[in-house]
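Data card: per-record layout.
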Amino acid sequence: MTQLCVAIFARDVQQVQAQVAAAAEAGADMIELRVDNITDSATVSQMIQTSSLPAIVTCRPTWEGGHCQLEESQRLTLLSEAAHRSAYIDIELKALASIAGLSTEPRTRRSGIICSSHDFTTRPAKLYQLLSELNDTNADVAKIVWTARSIRDNLEAFEILLNRAKPTIALCMGEAGVISRILAKKFGAFLTFASLGGDQATAPGQVSLQDMKRLYRWDTIGPETRVYGVVAQPVMHSMSPAIHNAAFDAVNHDGVYLPLLVEGSYESFKAFMETFTAMTALDLSGLSITLPHKENALRYLGEKGAHIEPLAKSIGAVNTIAIDRGQSADGNQQMQLRGLNTDYAAILDCITERLNIQRQDLRKYQVAVIGAGGTGRTAVAGLAHYGAQVTIYNRNLDRAQALADEFDQKIGSVKAAPLTELKHSRCQIYFHATSVGMYPKPEGCVFDGNCPALNGQSLVFDSIYNPIETRLLKLASSKGAKTISGVEMFVRQAVSQFETWTGQTAPMQIMRQVVISRLAGPQFESR
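The structure for this 527-residue chain is written out next.
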């Protein structure tokens, strides 16, 4: 069973006692006492004795990324004395020979020994030679940690765990390596590290204990857990892990949804897809795709000959990939990729439900789409497909005209107009698809000085979800118009993704509550 270990930088006995109590309360299995700045064994001994959790004692020297400035003989003496009181000590591969006598003592008379190697810069050039040296020692646990060059380095950590020769810790540091910490349990690591949150992390990319337990559902992760995630750059502020993991929890689906940092180029996206889908043991089963990879996903799936939803092709962007796995008649593993765009469906479903109509009824409506970017394009494609009469209002008329020319008369009609003409519009539906009014500048409003005539028959839909009620929606409400918040669009596209991946009915209300709760707290970026 993989242990969840909270790392604590020790300053004094009282601080350690308080933080150990907090770790135990939050569900940690072990603690790591980083005693780099402690100089006497008596203090370390007291810290160990007062800990309610099994303790690993680590005194990391500066030459291996730590802070200890003791003479090496003093540092090793401190560790050797701790080795008869703590559950484990962590000693660097380069220093293990200096306490060789300790590692040959019977296990019943000493602490366990974790022999470790760290690279805070990059992947070691001789990674597997280091691993072999770690495995050849008398240490009880081998630990190898390096800074991920890209998300693909995590796969080597997983392979090391799958093929371990002894209890092993294999982790990647940095934002790209976060998933190695969360999935350590899936691949049978001896332990993974978490922090108490805030500025308490002892290594780059360390996830808080609360997020490990609650956000990423640590207690439910096992060898059969399916993996999902959002592919983006940047990615750590995405709300998608919170919304999907809460949904998995609600329906008892054995899955975990992760932030997947993939650099913005097509080559990086392709390399990610090729390597992550090829690792059968990972069980990668579904992906959300967001900036800057929606066009990359469409291109990749096209090159692979995968099934792509027709409207996703028309829109020119995929925001959802389903990965279906099975066996062929001869028993070999098979994998099929499917590309979808759940954004357009979310837009249409929000509108039709609010107006109590069917999609085919949209042909009776005139719709103003404000903005000609990615979200505007998605709305135009979906609305025109169902016969709506669409006018694109945009500051750059040429861009709006190019978009109108692409979709006009395919089913519905599409034309372009300058944004300054919006006040003369007589549309029944207004869909806002620009960033005006979005946090951190919520004071903006595209209707300022340019507001069309609104009444009780009008519908104003703002794709922005932060803030939940924008100035645009407040203005529309004051004139009696019906409104739709971008929260509804965000939730519905996630609902479609969830149901595509799991085949289960999504717990929509729970997903909505998660989004609203997150927006009420620290600010988050797009999915």
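Known properties of this structure: Residues 486-502 form the longest helix (17 residues). The CA atoms of residues 169 and 189 lie 5 Å apart.

See the next section for split statistics.
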